[in-house]
Specification:
Low-confidence stretches: none
Shape: globular
Mean pLDDT: 91
Number of strands: 9
Structural class: alpha/beta
Helix content: 25-40%
CATH class of the largest domain: Alpha Beta
CATH topology of the largest domain: Rossmann fold
CATH architecture of the largest domain: 3-Layer(aba) Sandwich
Order of helices and strands: EEEHEEHHHHEHEHEEH
Strand order of the largest sheet: 5-6-7-3-8-9
Strand content: 15-25%
CATH superfamily of the largest domain: P-loop containing nucleotide triphosphate hydrolases
Distance between the termini: 35 Å
């Protein structure tokens, strides 16, 4: 996706180093630069331990970067107020109902106007096909349903940016496909900026405008693949030759990078 306007997220030569529990220096990210446009869906793929999740946490302010600059053009005084985060696990509080779990961020923030927030939470849960489960507790829901609650919670304050850290990784294949379709529907409707970390190349191609391919640690960007598949998309796209070409291009890049780091 190309645009003359300024990106909503600009990552400029970001570096990340930290100390391990054994006091060893770990170089997690090296010279990472990436610009993300407003309303763009960008996925990040790469080998385990390459810093994908670390980069997402740096964007969200959950971790500090060691070098480089991040710029945000969200209109919010604190960029984090413009972001919703969906983690690998839904991280629901077992003693709260599904509705109250979605309302947790507003309760922690001490927001006024609870009635309006309750209505928004209910609307989100209905959109995510959880309207009949608002008064249930997390243990009564399947893994896919719990992850839907996590997405609803992240969307509660209607953030322009949605950060997703392998949100479907723990789900079975059929549930994962269904969640991908639901996410596509949400994105098509709201056109939020999404940064999505995944280990699945097919998932990345199905969802994204661009797929960012990262190297082994220290993670750096080795390729950015523009996905030119028409939207709206469906699971039928996975069976097309063009889809397969994108998957092979990304896999070949990862394989080549792996060979370089092991020789």
């Amino acid at each position: 996706m190309t645009s003359a306007k300024q990106p909503i997220i600009e990552i400029d030569r970001v570096d990340k180093r930290y100390r391990s529990r054994k006091a060893e220096s770990v170089h997690a990210l090296r010279d990472v630069s990436l610009s993300i446009e407003d309303g763009e869906f960008v996925s990040i793929v790469g080998p385990s331990g390459c810093g994908k999740s670390t980069l997402l946490k740096i964007i969200n302010g959950l971790e500090r970067h060691s070098g480089g600059v991040l710029r945000f053009r969200t209109g919010a005084e604190d960029p984090r107020q413009a972001m919703g985060m969906v983690f690998q696990q839904p991280l629901l509080l077992p003693w709260r109902t599904i509705l109250d779990n979605v309302l947790l961020p507003r309760d922690l923030g001490g927001r006024r106007g609870r009635d309006a927030d309750v209505e928004r939470a209910k609307t989100l849960l209905r959109t995510l096909r959880l309207g009949d489960f608002m008064d249930r507790h997390p243990k009564e829901l399947s893994g896919g349903m719990q992850q839907r609650v996590g997405i609803a919670r992240a969307l509660m304050h209607d953030p322009p940016i949605l950060l997703m850290d392998e949100p479907f990784g723990a789900l079975d294949a059929m549930t994962r496909d269904q969640m991908s379709l639901e996410l596509l529907q949400i994105w098509e409707r709201d056109r939020k900026t999404v940064v999505f970390v995944t280990h699945s190349i097919s998932e990345a191609v199905l969802l994204s405008d661009r797929v960012v391919v990262m190297s082994s640690r220290p993670g750096r960007i080795v390729s950015v693949v523009e996905v030119g598949l028409p939207r709206p998309r469906s699971l039928a796209d996975i069976n097309t030759e063009r889809f397969g070409d994108y998957v092979r291009e990304i896999r070949d890049t990862l394989d080549s990078e792996h060979e370089l780091t092991t020789t």
